[in-house]
Design goal:
alpha+beta; 6-stranded antiparallel beta sheet; 5-stranded parallel beta sheet; globular; binds adenosine monophosphate; binds glycine
């Protein structure tokens, strides 16, 4: 199989890394890819933009691509799957209509409310005065969410009225562009967060092992939200009984609600859950793609070939596959970021120590890196906020995290930052 992966983050490096390990995969292309995908055997970066749909179609047809896997939400929300499908390509990733489950939190909330899916109570606002009045009446804590895509940064959990007021005013005055001119304001839920990434072909839906992300920048889950600072899998809290509840109360009815809207959803349905103190799983968000860094933690434990799963979803034959196979043990992933992230951060700093890190048995997925070929020999430099996602498996979480932090100690770049407490709930 020839597989084309769209995207350039740690998630895409992990997907390509997994794909090239399979005997069933002849060649992987990553478009545009990054410094990590550039180094994988049987994987080649493609210097095209992920919003240049015509060029992507032409490339895929010329190369005889058998399967396209779309990584990020942005091209999905722009309709990349629709365009590729129209050209006769097999695509893993929902259509533009399906991607609304992530690209509009108001749309997703309406779907959940109509289908009776457990979620935080919420109201939608396009008027600042009405939003302020609602927050005054509800009190704090309260959660203010930009409706549209904001790279994981459009949510404020406001613990004071002043914080809520600032969040509303900033969003409405264009901090997130059009994405923040509509707001979803919702009840603040308490409980532990779990990410359930489920695969679906539009008819059948099957969860991967669960993962837990760490969204906040600071130790002890403090400070602003990020795209995600580290993850582990599987989550002990997700017992078989709870997983069954998630399937019956959330995943299945969501798929049915999508079907009822005429949406043939093929790809990942990612349910971001809070497990409330009474044990009820509630949805805080849906995403239309693999979680980053959750998938970096999940894939090292996956034994079923990834391309078999994605192919079946794209084809509509997921029900025919045997249960997904996993190796036992634990997986840990810690993100190394550029100082300043999620605010402004430096770029172009030289990264060293990756060979020594690899000696520890950890795998270093590249998120924001670039090979600087303007110098001889070329050097690997930082090119994003989240720079690396260092991942390892072990028999226990302690073992997996010891390996990860051992590898991190070998890696250096100016002003690097990482959380030292990823996985604190399990180690
Ligand atoms: P989201 O982008 O919707 O995943 O939100 C980012 C983060 O904000 C989540 O991972 C939670 O930590 C937090 N969050 C979102 N919605 C709620 C909520 N209703 N109650 C409490 N925390 C929330
Ligand atoms: N790690 C959170 C996300 O991918 O949205």
């Amino acid at each position: 199989m020839k597989v084309l992966v769209i995207g350039s983050g740690g998630r895409e490096h992990a997907l390509c890394w997994k794909l090239v390990q399979s005997a069933g995969v002849e060649q992987v292309f990553c478009l545009p890819g990054n410094g990590g995908t550039a180094t994988l055997e049987r994987c080649q970066n493609v210097a095209l933009k992920s919003d240049d749909f015509n060029a992507i179609v032409q490339f895929a047809q010329e190369q005889g691509i058998d399967l396209v896997i779309v990584g990020p939400e942005l091209p999905l929300s722009q309709g990349i799957s629709d365009r590729l499908q129209q050209a006769g390509l097999l695509v893993f990733g929902p259509t533009q209509a399906g991607a609304q489950i992530e690209s509009s939190k108001a749309w997703a909330k309406a779907l959940m409310q109509a289908a009776g899916i457990p979620t935080a109570q919420a109201q939608v606002f396009t008027d600042a005065a009405a939003a302020h009045a609602y927050v005054q009446a509800q009190g704090v804590p309260i959660v203010i969410k930009a409706d549209g895509l904001a790279a994981g940064k459009g949510v404020t959990v406001a613990t004071t009225l002043a914080m809520a007021k600032t969040a509303i005013d900033e969003a409405m005055s264009g901090k997130f562009g059009a994405a923040g001119r509509t707001l979803v304001i919702e009840e603040c839920l308490v409980g532990e967060e779990v990410s359930v990434l489920a695969l679906t072909d539009g008819q059948t839906i099957r969860p991967l092992i669960s993962a837990q992300d760490h969204k906040r920048i600071g130790v002890g889950d403090t400070g602003p939200n990020t795209g995600g600072m580290g993850a582990y899998a599987p989550v002990p809290l997700m017992t078989p009984a709870l997983a069954e509840r998630v399937q019956v109360e959330i995943l299945h009815p969501t798929l049915q609600a999508l079907q009822a809207r005429g949406i043939d959803y093929r790809g990942v349905l990612y349910a971001g859950l809070i497990i409330t103190p009474s044990g009820v799983p509630k949805v805080i968000e849906f995403n239309c793609r693999f979680g980053d860094p959750e998938i970096q933690a999940i894939l090292p434990l996956l034994e079923t070939p990834l391309e078999t799963l994605c192919w079946a979803c794209a084809q509509g034959s997921l029900a025919d596959l045997p249960p997904i196979q996993w190796r036992s043990g634990a997986s840990a992933c810690v993100v190394m970021a550029a100082g300043g992230y999620p605010g402004d951060y430096r770029q172009g700093d030289i990264i060293t120590g990756l060979d020594a890190a690899a000696q520890t048995g950890a795998v270093v997925f590249h998120a924001g890196t670039r090979l600087n070929t303007a110098v001889d020999p070329p050097t690997l430099v930082t090119s994003g906020g989240r720079v690396l996602a260092v991942t390892a498996v072990g028999d226990t979480f302690d073992q997996a995290f010891d390996r990860v932090y051992g590898a991190i100690a070998q890696i250096d770049f100016a002003d690097r930052y990482y959380r030292s407490d990823i996985g604190y709930r399990v180690r």
